[in-house]
Design a protein that fits this description.
The chain is an alpha+beta fold. About 50% of the residues lie in helices and about 20% in strands. The protein folds into 4 domains: about 120 residues, Beta-Lactamase; about 80 residues, Beta-Lactamase (2-Layer Sandwich), CATH 3.30.450.20; about 110 residues, PAS domain (Beta-Lactamase), CATH 3.30.450; about 150 residues, Alpha-Beta Plaits. The strands form 4 sheets. Strands 1, 2, 3, 4, 5 and 6 form a 6-stranded antiparallel β-sheet that branches. The protein has a 5-stranded antiparallel β-sheet with strand order 8-7-11-10-9. Strands 13-12-16-15-14 form a 5-stranded antiparallel β-sheet, sandwiched between helices. The radius of gyration is 55 Å and the shape is elongated. The relative contact order is 0.05.
């Protein structure tokens, strides 16, 4: 019975294992995170209530202190006898003694109902009233109505600009009648230090704020600079509003976790904050540990699966190796399959089949190579997508300038190096067109075989899609150098004036027309030889031909190779000097040409000097050859009246 190994099953098991571990992680993470986060929030709530309780206790202590002070005999006596010097002395000494043990007292005093201060820890504040009549009456009514010591809240001291806890208490005589009041103000610095000490003792970097829910002013803050200022943080303001409605409220975002407790009696909201990392650090730590454990377990189980599959897949790798070599046209013998040819399972049958296929392909490939060797036409096959060389025969190697037997060492980049820049552009355009149209194409290409040795190749390309879906381009290459040279020679003869070797009228007009069509600026010069008929009549036509060839030689020496030199016929010539836009530059070029004409000395003329008449036109707009000729012709004949070499520009006298 044949054994069967399924890679799909192994992959499915591995994937299912990973997915299961991921799902397990998310379930455990969610459960642990929810529990730990809830506990952390509860701890923050306890801290907020404890801190607010500390504030209440501290305020109660302030009230108890003032209550003891207001019930003292010294306070009662001085309010009964405010003019008695002895009573004033005793209460003032007593006030200072009471303030001795309290470093954070902003003020401690006894005053009559009109707020006239009889005793104060600050001497500058005694013997004066600190409120107007209406304000004093309002304070008296508030104290009488309370009937006991009370705190009005935590406010910003107008003089020192520090947050203080103001406390007021009525002073009663023996009959129970309120005869005045006592007041004190405790700076909140002491309370803030106590809150900070709690943080230090707990080892937590917890921030805190106490905000008046009515006016949103900071009563306390772990940043002292914020005390007394109005809160403008929208998140905190929203939390204050919700806490005032619910009593307790917690919230968190990506950076902080906050818990709020509402002090209903005072309309204050105490807020404690901590960083998300600080509060949920345990959550992250547990999450990371669980993740590490699951990753280790997953990796261990995957390794077991990989090792097991690897043992089973060894025959498949050997089969795949042979197939890859066949795809790369490597048909040499490979012993990789030998251990599996005798197996009685699925891999054994496949190994035998692949081995037989290898033998058949090897025979066919050897026949194919022999056929390629005897071909007189170069053959080159490249892949469409990668441009990788699939096959190249000896004739193609020879045409491209490579040594025989180097087919495995060259690449398409080596072939590109055999072409100059223009030829590369030309070949790339042809390839792009073949790939786009998927049709046959033929084109010429100049190849630099080695050094200065160049040949011309006719390439016939065909786009072919193979049975496996790959696409290749097959090139047939032929040497057409001799034919190309013949064609070039015939072309040169058809475009060149036979006597002077410069452009004849037909090719010259075509080249100038192309330059004008491309809107190339330049200078159009038309000239002929003065008294050329006299030369022919007196010295013979052979001497006349020497004059014409001599002038053509001067033209070649004077003008650039990019300029177009034309013999129109007879003794009439044209020069199109490209990129000359300025008459001053044009004059320099023409005058240099005329000086070279003056140096022309033809022995057969017996001392007769040659001169020309020239008309020049700067190309300034879209004009054709005939228009420029007519303009220059009128100028040329106008110069005939002058003696010697003469020229004129169009548009000038």
């Amino acid at each position: 019975m044949q054994k069967r190994v399924s890679i799909k099953t192994a992959l499915f098991i591995g994937t299912a294992l990973v997915v299961s571990m991921v799902v397990l992680f998310f379930i455990m993470n969610y459960s642990l995170s929810s529990t730990l986060r809830d506990n952390a929030i509860k701890d923050m709530n306890v801290i907020a209530r404890d801190r607010s309780g500390l504030v209440e206790t501290y305020i109660d202590g302030c009230i108890d202190f003032l209550e003891s002070y207001s019930r003292s005999e010294e306070a009662i006596r001085v309010l009964q006898n405010p003019e008695d010097p002895e009573a004033l002395r005793e209460i003032r000494e007593y006030t200072l003694r009471c303030a001795t043990d309290y470093d954070y007292l902003e003020g401690l005093y006894v005053a009559e109902w009109d707020t006239y201060v009889l005793a104060h820890i600050n001497p500058d504040s005694m013997d004066q009233t600190f409120r107007d009549h209406d304000s004093a009456k309002e304070l008296e009514n508030m104290i009488r109505e309370a009937g006991k010591p009370f705190c009005t809240g935590i406010v910003l001291a107008p003089v020192t600009k520090e947050m203080v806890i103001p406390v007021y208490a009525p002073v009663f005589d023996e009959s129970g009648e309120a005869i005045g009041f006592a007041g004190c103000a405790f700076r909140t610095v002491d309370l803030a230090k106590r809150l900070d000490i709690l943080n230090e003792e707990s080892g937590q970097s917890i921030g805190y704020s106490l905000i008046n829910a009515n006016n949103h002013v900071y009563i306390f803050n772990d940043d002292p600079g914020m005390v007394g200022k109005e809160c403008i943080d929208d998140t905190l303001l929203d939390a204050v509003a919700k806490t005032a409605k619910r009593g307790d409220y917690s919230f968190s975002d990506s950076s902080i976790v906050a818990s709020c407790h509402y002090m209903a009696d005072r309309d204050w909201v105490f807020i404690v904050t901590d960083t998300t990392k600080g509060v949920f650090g345990v959550v992250n730590s547990v999450r990371i540990r669980v993740l590490i454990i699951l990753i280790i377990v997953t990796i261990f189980m995957i390794l077991i699966c990989v090792v097991s599959i690897d043992r089973q897949m060894k025959p498949l790798r050997a089969i795949n190796k042979v197939i890859e070599r066949l795809k790369a046209s490597d048909y040499s013998h490979d012993s990789s399959l030998d251990p599996y040819l005798t197996r009685e399972d699925e891999f054994g049958n496949i190994s035998v089949a692949v081995n037989e296929l290898h033998s058949v392909l090897e025979n066919q490939y050897e026949l194919f190579l022999e056929m390629l060797k005897v071909q007189t036409v170069g053959t080159l096959i490249i892949k469409e997508d990668t441009k990788e060389i699939v096959l190249i025969n000896d004739m193609a190697l020879s045409l491209l300038g490579f040594a025989s037997g180097t087919e495995k060492m060259i690449s398409t980049s080596d072939i590109w190096q055999k072409l100059d820049d223009d030829e590369r552009i030309h070949v790339r355009e042809q390839l792009d067109n073949i790939i786009r149209t998927k049709q046959e194409a033929a084109f010429d290409v100049e190849v630099r075989q080695s050094g200065e040795n160049h040949i011309y190749i006719l390439a016939h390309a065909n786009y072919v899609t193979l049975s496996n879906g790959d696409s290749v381009i097959i090139f047939s290459l032929m040497n057409i150098t001799d034919r190309k040279k013949l064609e070039d020679h015939l072309m040169l003869l058809s475009e060149t004036d036979g006597l002077t070797g410069i452009c004849n009228r037909r090719s010259g007009e075509r080249r100038v027309g192309s330059a004008l069509a491309s809107k190339m600026p330049g200078m159009f010069c038309l000239f002929d030889v003065d008294k050329f008929k006299y030369v022919n009549d007196n010295f013979g036509h052979a001497a006349g031909d020497l004059v014409l060839t001599g002038i053509a030689d001067v033209m070649k020496k004077t003008f650039r190779t990019s300029d177009i030199l034309i013999r129109l016929g007879g003794d009439e010539f044209v020069v199109f000097a490209s990129d000359i836009k300025d008459k001053d530059i044009g004059r320099m070029v023409i005058e240099r040409f005329l000086k070279n004409i003056e140096k022309l000395d033809i022995e057969q003329l017996n001392g007769h000097h040659i001169s020309i008449s020239l008309g020049a036109v700067l190309v300034e707009s879209e004009e054709d050859f005939s228009t420029l000729y007519e303009k220059a012709d009128s100028l040329m004949y106008g110069c005939k009246s002058e003696t010697g070499n003469a020229y004129a520009f169009y548009g000038e006298q």
